[in-house]
């Protein structure tokens, strides 16, 4: 399985929540902390959620350890 590089803010905003959690498992705790049930709203994007900017900031922090480009 190839390593996925750090997602951009645009990528995090436009992907369905369940895809973010699948591709970047370090974000699961962020969803839990914000009371987001992926079983209920996993098909939505961040823009559909209240306080999406705060959640986006948190997801960006959680994925910041990843390099910007995929390693070969």
Q: What do you see in this structure?
A:
It is a single chain. The chain is mainly α. The protein is 47% helix and 0% strand. It has five helices and no strands. The protein has helices at 9-14, 17-23, 28-33, 38-41, 52-62. It is globular, with a radius of gyration of 12 Å. The N and C termini lie close together (12 Å). The model has no long low-confidence stretch (mean pLDDT 92).
Number of strands: 0
Measured by DSSP, the beta-strand proportion falls in under 5%
* Helix/strand order: HHHHH
- Which structural class fits the helix and strand makeup? mainly alpha
Question: Rounded to an integer, what's the Rg over CA atoms?
Answer: 12 Å
- Biggest pleated-sheet summary: none
Q: Percentage of helical residues?
A: 40-55%
Low-confidence stretches: none
What is the first-to-last residue Cα distance?
12 Å
Give me the number of helical elements.
5
- Whole-number mean pLDDT: 92
Query: Which overall shape is indicated by the principal axes computed on the Cα atoms?
Result: globular
């Amino acid at each position: 399985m190839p390593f996925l590089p750090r997602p951009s803010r645009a990528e995090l905003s436009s992907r369905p929540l369940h895809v973010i959690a699948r591709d970047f498992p370090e974000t699961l705790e962020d969803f839990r902390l914000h009371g987001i049930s992926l079983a209920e709203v996993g098909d939505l994007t961040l823009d559909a959620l209240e306080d999406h900017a705060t959640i986006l900031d948190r997801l960006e922090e959680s994925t910041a350890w990843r390099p910007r480009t995929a390693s070969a």
